[in-house]
Amino acid sequence: MFTSQGPTLRELAVQGMSSIERGYDLLAPKFDQTPFRTPDRMLDAVEETLARHEAPFDAGLDVCCGTGAGLGMLRRLCTGRVTGVDLSSGMLAEAGLAHPEADLLRADARHLPAALEDSYDLAVSFGAFGHFLPEERPAVFSGVHAALRPGGVFAFPIGAPIPPSRPAWWVVSGFDAAMRVRNAVWRPPFVMYYRTFPLGGVRTDLRAAGFTVETLPLDHFGRRPDGTPRWRLVLARKEG
Q1: What would the pLDDT profile of 28-68 be if each residue is shown by its tens digit?
Q2: Nearest CA-CA partner of 130 in 156, 104, 155
Q3: N or C end: fewer C-beta atoms under 10 angstroms in the chain?
């Protein structure tokens, strides 16, 4: 939930009518006081699962690191350098205050710099994939694949589909519809959708980028009535 130290309704409106980069530059100083920040519960679940099944790693990369919620996790999982990449200089400034030991780089995840190639053993990303249209996913995944060393892992959580019988389905569907209308009538666009990242399509795009793909249940969040996990950790591995 928003706290009293978080952004005002007016500030959120200004952000929402800006570009993605400008919007996050404006929101950055108060971002961690919003529900948009990845919850510690999710970070802890991913860290515990990676530590149990995959660690240790050498170098780590946080793609779309924002204010650095995932950088502390990478520091604990990785024995070498940790790098955060984000499009927003404002978000990177906040990440630098919280994690001065991390290397921070301003870059578009759809066009990761060639200097990052073959440099990392673990890449993670949290809460950013709604900012990429489905047709942009291959570029993001290919860039991460290039940044990993052979045998490296790209890890991120993904939630189970929300059934239409639940109120949350109507909330996220309504939000996505409102964003489509906003982007049809207002420039610059602000791409942020909640229902454009299904596991099936994501798995297909990861494999096309050269990854092998497996998932692990994040049982910290329980299971649905049919027994399937509410959240999974995707592990996309660069063959080596």
Answers
A1: 999 989 888 999 999 999 999 999 988 789 999 999 999 99
A2: 156
A3: N
pLDDT at 13: 80
Contact 34, 2 (CB under 8 A): yes
| Confidence at residue 16, expressed as pLDDT on a 0 to 100 scale | 79
Looking at residue 36, what is its pLDDT? 86
Q: Which residue matches tokens 């993904």?
A: 158
- Residues 88 and 207 both lie in one domain: yes
Q: Which of 97, 154, 156 is nearest to 126 (CA)?
A: 156
The CATH number linked to 140 is 3.40.50.150
Smallest CA-to-CA distance from 235 within 91, 99, 46 is with 46
My answer on whether 118 and 46 are in the same domain is yes
- Lookup: tokens for 80: 């070498």
Torsion from C-alpha of 205, 208, 212, 214, nearest 10 degrees: 20
User: Residues 78, 140: one domain?
Assistant: yes
Across the beta sheet with 211-217, what order do the strands follow?
103-106, 82-86, 60-63, 120-124, 148-159, 231-238, 211-217
The single residue listed with the structure tokens 């929101």 is: 27
Instruction: Count Cβ atoms within 10 A of the Cβ of residue 234 and give its class: 0-12 exposed, 13-18 middle, 19 or more buried.
Output: buried
Strand partners, 156: 234
Say if CB 226 and CB 201 are below 8 A apart.
no
